[in-house]
Write a structure and sequence with these properties.
By secondary structure, this protein is an alpha+beta fold. The chain has helices spanning about 5, 15-25, 110-115, 115-175, 180-185, 195-210, 215-235, 240-250, 255-260, 265-305, 320-330, 330-335, 355-375, 405-410, 430-440; strands at about 30, 35-40, 45-55, 55-60, 65-75, 75-80, 90-95, 100-105, 315, 340-345, 350-355, 380-390, 390-400, 445-450, 450-460. The strands form four sheets. A five-stranded mixed beta sheet has the order 10-12-13-15-14. Strands 1-8-3-6 form a four-stranded antiparallel beta sheet, with helices on one face. The longest helix has about 60 residues, at about 115-175. The relative contact order is 0.08.
């Protein structure tokens, strides 16, 4: 290699040739075959690599799949660069083709910085561009992975009420096909106006009974057995099917005794059968309505969570709305991990001047991290507290998980640092939290010991920076 070869690099075209010659004299030429791994995550980076031919790819493993990050080819520079804080490789570095390159050892970087200004400046410019590009790519991957988690949880939450609607609609359709026969029998009865009023009045009263809290399983079973016995004693057909309906709508034996006294014996079975059919329709419609409301509530939560109706500017918001909607979005994961959530909210807090969508990212990252820490142990506890601290609002997110080791606690906010296994995190979640809260002129602190990990978020209520 000679200085003319290096001048073909865009990054080095303005570097004086004597400095390029010094670089060549202190570097080593290397060749690697296709398929060779220069680095794997955690490996120490040997130095600065100047690629003359071939292609090197960088990729990570997420959710068991290969996720390409970027690639470098001829006349590009990679490896560790001046002023870089990188401690080791954060991705797989793989030769896609045969590669020929020149490597300047890491041990010589200090001398380069001290004696060769233009060369150092050129490589620092490479580093800043690389950090910016890599951060954009990785942050996008982090958002997509978080979106995937939320989408999976939301799909599970929507699936149950959606299935209930389909099931209820099908069952209701089958039930309504029997309505003509029930109607025919009812029309053949010869009830007096007073008897008809008696039946209608009890149907109206039954709606109030249906809204009462349901008793325990043993009590329900006992009540239904008593109703079944009454129906069998009075030779009412389909007694087993009626008992649950009548129990739900408050038609216990004492009430049924009134029916037996007020109605002609030959029409008692027909009237009770028609009432049970009516109650069945009511219950099916109620189930469909409840499932529909559940879906509507989830859609509303998604809309608020993503801040669809808001702009990108700060506005006065109730932070509790964002936290609660985040919990709704993550309900499946929390329920799956058997995690108990306690809300300790100061309802007297005034609206805060903030970016709603950005704060939702903060709550999502903190709750998601806590859930990941608690999931393996089962029956974990997550506590979210809000309170006012002078002109500031303070939010704490605490869990009773295993805690963060002291050696990691000082690094958890560093970009790309993660303690999660490969594929479960990019190390940008807490970095995003820090950046968003700084954008709100606030602070983020973390304390941890086994059984008590606490993240404390603090930022001004009116959105303005305050001296402390």
């Amino acid at each position: 290699m000679n200085t003319q070869d290096l001048l073909l690099f865009d990054a080095l075209k303005d570097v004086p040739e004597p400095q390029l010659q010094w670089l060549i004299d202190h570097s080593e030429n290397e060749r690697f075959a296709e398929g060779h791994y220069l680095y794997k995550p955690g490996d120490e980076i040997r130095g600065i690599h100047f690629i003359f031919s071939g292609t090197i790819e960088f990729y990570r493993i997420q959710a068991g799949s290969k996720l390409p990050v970027t690639e470098f080819s001829a006349r590009q520079v990679t490896g560790i660069l001046p002023y870089s804080r990188a401690r080791g490789a954060i991705a797989f570095t793989h030769c896609r083709t045969d590669v020929e390159m020149m490597t300047f050892p890491k041990s010589g970087i200090r001398e380069m910085i001290a004696e060769h200004y233009e060369l150092t400046q050129a490589l620092v410019f490479v580093m800043t561009n690389r950090v910016r590009d890599f951060a954009i790519i990785t942050q996008q991957n982090e958002k997509m992975m978080a979106l995937g988690k939320l989408a999976a949880g939301l799909a599970h939450e929507l699936n149950n009420p959606a299935a209930a609607i389909v099931r209820g609609s099908d069952t209701l359709g089958e039930h309504l096909r029997t309505a003509p026969e029930t109607f025919r029998k009812m029309m053949l009865t010869r009830l007096s106006p007073e008897e008809a009023d008696f039946v209608c009045e009890h149907i109206r009263q039954s709606q109030a009974a249906a809204e009462m809290p349901a008793p325990g399983m043993l009590e329900r079973s006992s009540q239904e057995d008593e109703i079944s016995d009454w129906l069998y004693d009075h030779q009412i057909p389909e007694a087993a099917d009626m008992a649950e309906n009548f129990r739900h709508y408050g038609l216990h034996p004492a009430v049924l005794d009134e029916f037996a006294k007020q109605l002609p014996a030959e029409y008692l079975g027909t009237v009770l059968s028609w009432m049970s059919s009516h109650f069945t329709t009511e219950r099916m419609l109620s189930d469909i309505r409840e499932a529909s409301q559940r879906i509507s509530g989830l859609v509303k939560s998604v809309k608020i969570f993503t801040h669809m109706d808001g702009g990108t500017d700060k506005q006065y918001i109730d932070i509790h709305t964002g936290i609660r909607n985040t919990l709704v979005m993550m309900q499946y994961k929390l329920r799956k991990g058997k995690i108990t959530v306690t809300e300790d909210f100061d309802q007297t807090l005034p609206p805060v001047y903030a970016l709603s969508g950005e704060l939702n990212q903060v709550w999502t990252n903190l709750i998601d991290n806590a859930a990941d820490a608690l999931e393996p142990q089962g029956n974990g506890a997550l506590r979210i507290r809000t309170e006012r601290d002078g002109a500031f609002v303070k939010v704490t997110v605490a869990d009773n998980g295993p805690g963060i080791p002291p050696e990691n606690l000082t690094r958890i906010f560093d970009p790309f640092f993660t303690t999660k296994e490969i594929g479960k995190g990019t190390g940008l979640g807490l970095d995003a939290v820090m950046n968003i809260i700084r954008q709100h002129h606030g602070s983020v602190k973390a304390t941890s010991e086994p059984g008590n990990t606490v993240f404390t978020i603090c930022f001004p209520i009116n959105g303005e920076a305050h001296s402390s």
